[in-house]
Amino acid sequence: MAIPNDPVILMSYLNTQLRDFYTGLDDLCKSLALNQAQIEEKLSSIGYKYSEKHNQFISA
Fold it and tell me: Can you tell me whether residue 51 is helix, strand or coil?
């Protein structure tokens, strides 16, 4: 599965996936075989961090 490369589009894509299909980021990354640390680093570069409470990436 190819995921978007652009950080803003990636954030939107991941938040939609988290909202619709996954109980958490760990679950999503395992299911899609994604490197969680790389995802968090990429979205951190545009000022977003994962919130377990909201189960989405939010503005840091």
Answer: strand
**Structural domain contains residue 1:** no
In the structure encoding, which two tokens stand for residue 35, read together?
């490197």
The H or E element that residue 58 is part of is strand 56-59
CB 10 within 8 A of CB 43: yes
31-54 pLDDT, tens digit per residue, is 999 999 999 999 999 999 999 999
In this predicted structure, the answer to whether residue 2 has a pLDDT above a threshold of 90 is no
Entry field: residues in the chain: 60
Residue 58 phi, psi dihedral angles, 5° rounding: -125, 160
Residue 24's domain comprises 7-59
